[in-house]
Amino acid sequence: MEKIEPPAPETRTNRRGRRSRQEILDAAARVMSVRGYAGTPMSTLAKETGLPKSAFYHHFESKAGLLSAVMEQGAYSFFDAMREAHRNPPEDGTPNERLRWYLRRTGNVMENGEEFLRLLLVLVMSREAAEAPEALQTVIAVRDEGRAYMAHMIRSSFQSAGEETADKIAEALAPFGMAGYDGAFVALQSEGGRPVSAWMDQLADSIAALGEAIIAAD
Length: 218
Prior knowledge:
By secondary structure, the chain is an all-alpha fold. The chain has nine helices and no strands. 75% of the residues lie in helices and 0% in strands. Helix 7 crosses helix 8.
């Protein structure tokens, strides 16, 4: 799988400047995830951080450039957390058991990356990123890597069926898995009280059953 690379280091600023840049990024991610890109004026971010507007334009050429940096940082952090969560997967177990292992950990990453995922879905469902081409490219890259990650989890879970069959199942069901993951995130935001692990277990059960049906049909 191709990996989203870490953001390029900021070379123009000293330690204090890097701290103010990070404060801006953190505030922008927090506010934009709730209000969207268009609904977040620079004046609101200045109030959130206590920094003058001039500080924003010192670090970022424009509001679109700020969005691009927010998305780049969020994407790298999200997939870095995914890679860490999926270290040392189980070598044994049924496809359902292995999928539950993967997806429960993926659900934990979801909970810890709520701000980034909210903003990502806002940008996916709107045209707000059109004026920020770099941010739009990050959105596309995140969706592509997300599908590749889902395919990897499914393929690994069905490895006992053989490489060719596992590849076939992963290719067929990765889009469904992504749709289920997106839906679980929306449900998590709107239907309080149900743990994310419950959504992930149901998703694992569904993918496992569909995968077994593909095997049976061969």
